[in-house]
Amino acid sequence: MAVTMNDVARAAGVSLKTVSNVLNDYEFIRPSTKQRVHDAIAELGYEANLTARSLRSGKTRMLGLVLSDLSAPYYAELASRLMTVASRRGYRVLVEQSGGAADNELTALQGPFRQLTDGLLFTPLAMDADAVAARRGSKPVVLLGEHILDPRFDVVTMKNEEAAEAVTAHLLAGGRRRIAVMGAHAEESAGSPGLRLKGYRKALDEAGIVFDPALVAPCGWRRDGGASAVAGLLDSGVPFDAVFGLNDTLALGAMHELLIRGVSVPQDVAVAGFDDIAEARFASPSLTTVSPGMDEIAERSVGLLIDRIEGLKPEDDGVHVEAGFVLTVRESAP
Amino acid sequence: MAVTMNDVARAAGVSLKTVSNVLNDYEFIRPSTKQRVHDAIAELGYEANLTARSLRSGKTRMLGLVLSDLSAPYYAELASRLMTVASRRGYRVLVEQSGGAADNELTALQGPFRQLTDGLLFTPLAMDADAVAARRGSKPVVLLGEHILDPRFDVVTMKNEEAAEAVTAHLLAGGRRRIAVMGAHAEESAGSPGLRLKGYRKALDEAGIVFDPALVAPCGWRRDGGASAVAGLLDSGVPFDAVFGLNDTLALGAMHELLIRGVSVPQDVAVAGFDDIAEARFASPSLTTVSPGMDEIAERSVGLLIDRIEGLKPEDDGVHVEAGFVLTVRESAP
DNA sequence: CTGAAAGCGCTTACAG
DNA sequence: CTGAAAGCGCTTACAG
């Protein structure tokens, strides 16, 4: 079988505990002892059994990441960064796809997934704050991307409202007056869609433009959603001179549909998105959008979660982090 | 503390072993006993401790997935599907990003990552077949996406050569004669780049067109790689009337650069890619590409790996699966 | 600084 | 069909 700590202890002529101490960087070990243990480890090719360690210590050194769909570019890019940051602190990331469904989110929050992980990075799309609070369990949870202003939670998010306002203000500054919004209901108030819509309305107010609900098109936050939504708007005959997609993929879907129908971008209709996924810069025309500080979100959320896990952060009220954003102007809305 | 099997056994008035038998669907248990155990489990809210189970059984019910970068659209889409398929058979997927670097691939193959997983889905980008064979360890490994025709390995891949040939033949059929290839060296023979280049050359041969190494531009398989490569080609003055990007992201980067420079697609230069990522359909113009059967790859690779893990497949020679492909013609190369 | 013992919560042979 | 015991390989108190 595999080499165990016992084998190492025997080879080094010390007790099991001493080997464990060496492996766990316990301070007070005689250098010569330490050396003998390290020699034995090298000689035998010993590797610690992580499962046994987990069983005894109750820690897995894995972080759970719950998101709707890893194939969505924003989540793929975020997951990749989170993994990189976590690995620098010696943690792995285990991903669970919820599909944005409440029952899957609940399972991820309460089921065996929690056992496998020391803490959770959770993007709640279907569950609300109270539901999460009631089922959060005892291990640390950091909410991601949602702006739940709730002292019960650690939240790392982006400036949804301010960034959406900046995008809208930019479109207005470019002379657009009929800005269609895709990806929300006209009365939406919760979650990212609600906050971004609020930013949009705020910019309109600032400019003294009356909000027109006919310009708000609900749709899924994916390419096909944006394409259908813009098609519906064109077919309905509602005039518009700009499209603000509440995320980049749907903005790109909308732009595709516009171009197919012979609407030129940005001459006839300007298009802007939200997220600055890698694709935005290389779209044709390239997409004006907002970079919501993904690196900062990754860095801060993983850092905060691990600090909680390791007890480095006092268990006070929830910490709220809002990453900075940058408006990135490109060809689709100069 | 948490409820254990012991608590359940006591509550149900049976031994530990009987509870274990019930949990593991052992056949010969009296229905009444089974019922009592299930009642006790429900009453106490018992959940099996997965770590303890792993330590004793030596199985984690996790599959490892090693790929270069989860933020690359092809890998993101693949990972998402692999997770979905695995979860249907009761397995989770733990992802490790290698960045395409040999040392990271080696670590993933030999390090603690292997302990955490019962088997590996491995995309070798830097390591060759012999290196992998020498370090594969004792647990099952299924190679993904690479066409290593080696009986030592289970391999699930795509028809790299045939698909690339089909793309090239399509461009030729459209009247293109100077087809630039991006993403390989002119003498490349290994891995996906080599095979796709081979397919390209084969199609040229069929059409009686002489291979021109000046049309082959090496570059990274990302958007910026494709953009730089096409820029280099344009600057060099080498004439070409089509671009075949060896994957979609680089083809899209190339297309972006062409359009920026006022080269119209497909009128002046046709563009085709490889992978059919979600973005290809919504690009402007939409991208002609080849769908390499990702669903089939996900289904077959996970199925094969789990069969190996569970001993359902005799340990004979490596199984080789080549998923079917579909040429998807769109606006960029009609 | 180091040791001997206990135990994390399961599954695995081995009995009966 | 079910039970009592052993043990997977570590870490954790507890001693000294």
CATH class of the largest domain in chain A: Alpha Beta
**Would you count the extended β strands of chain A for me?**
12
- Low-confidence sequence ranges of chain A: none
Distance between the termini of chain A: 65 Å
Query: What name does the CATH topology of the largest domain in chain A carry?
Result: Rossmann fold
In terms of DSSP E residues, the strand content of chain A is: 5-15%
Please give the largest β-sheet of chain A: 6 strands, parallel
Given helix and strand content, the structural type of chain A is alpha/beta
Overall residue-averaged pLDDT value of chain A = 92
CATH homologous superfamily (4th level) name of the largest domain in chain A: Response regulator
Indicate the CATH architecture of the largest domain in chain A. Answer: 3-Layer(aba) Sandwich
Count of DSSP helices of chain A? 14
Radius of gyration of chain A: 25 Å
Biggest interface pair, counts: A-B, 44 and 45 residues
The oligomeric state is homodimer
Pattern of helices and strands of chain A: HHHHEHEHHEHEEHEHEHEHEHEHEE
What is the number of independent domains of chain A? 3
Strand order of the largest sheet of chain A: 2-1-3-4-5-11
What this model shows, in words?
- The structure is a homodimer of 334-residue chains.
- Chain A has 334 residues and is of the alpha/beta class.
- Chain A folds into three domains: 5-48, 434 Repressor (Amino-terminal Domain) (Orthogonal Bundle), CATH 1.10.260.40; 60-158 and 294-323, Response regulator (Rossmann fold, 3-Layer(aba) Sandwich); 160-291, Rossmann fold, CATH 3.40.50.
- Chain A has helices at residues 5-12, 16-23, 31-44, 50-57, 73-88, 102-110, 112-115, 129-135, 160-173, 191-207, 223-236, 248-260, 278-282, 294-309; strands spanning 62-67, 92-97, 119-122, 141-144, 154-158, 179-182, 216-217, 242-245, 270-272, 289-291, 320-323, 326-328.
- In chain A, helix 1 crosses helix 2 (16-23).
- Chain A is elongated, with a radius of gyration of 25 Å.
- Chain A binds chain B through residues 47-52, 54-55, 60, 69-71, 73, 76-77, 79-81, 83-84, 92-97, 112, 115-116, 223, 227, 252-253, 255-256, 259-260, 278-279, 281-284, 286, and chain B through 47-52, 54-55, 60, 69-71, 73, 76-77, 79-81, 83-84, 92-97, 112, 115-116, 223-224, 227, 252-253, 255-256, 259-260, 278-279, 281-284, 286.
- The structure holds a DNA duplex (16 and 16 nucleotides).
